[in-house]
Amino acid sequence: MMKGYVFVVLLLVGCSTFTAKPYEERVTEATIVTWLTFDDIEKECIKAGSKDPGPLRNILGCVRYSAKTCRIYTGKTTTMETLGHELRHCFEGKFHE
After folding, report:
1. In what order do the strands lie in the sheet with 61-65?
2. Terminal CA-to-CA distance of the chain, rounded, Å?
3. How far apart are CA 76 and CA 19, in angstroms?
4. Between β-strands 32-38 and 3-7, what pairing exists: parallel, antiparallel or unpaired?
5. For residues 64-91, average pLDDT
6. Mapping DSSP to helix (H, G, I), strand (E, B) and coil, where does residue 32 land?
7. Contacts of 52 (CB under 8 A, 6+ apart)
8. Which of 26, 40, 60, 62 has its CA 20 to 30 A from that of 78?
9. HSE (CB half, 13 Å, CA atoms) of 89?
């Protein structure tokens, strides 16, 4: 069973830094973020459209976004690094693919 959370958040992830895109280059405007947690995150992300990473990699989270909404998918146990990474996708889209 999934649970959804709607929140507004500022995350500071200390593992790495990046330069945020200017506002006019971001993929969203005023965004409503929903955080969904699942027992089997790989299955849910693949069902939502993520590519199967194969046997040597794991999916820790994924995201689906539009101009106004963003849904973050993670396992029930996650890290601030994973949550922050997925939240960045909400505002900057596909920044590493």
Report:
1. 3-7, 32-38, 69-75, 61-65
2. 30
3. 29
4. antiparallel
5. 91
6. strand
7. 46
8. 26
9. 20
pLDDT score for 18? 66
Sign of CA dihedral 82, 87, 90, 96: negative
pLDDT computed for residue 10 by the predictor: 43
State the Cα–Cα distance between residues 52 and 79, nearest whole angstrom.
21
Q: How far apart are CA 50 and CA 76, in angstroms?
A: 18
Residues written for the chain: 97
- The reported pTM is 0.70
Residue 36 and residue 40: Cα distance in Å, rounded? 12
What are the helix (H) ranges across 1-97? 41-47, 80-92
The CA angle 18-51-34, to the nearest 5 degrees, is 60
Q: Are strands 32-38 and 61-65 parallel, antiparallel or unpaired?
A: unpaired
> According to the model, what pLDDT value does residue 43 have?
92
Q: What tokens were used for 52?
A: 């199967």
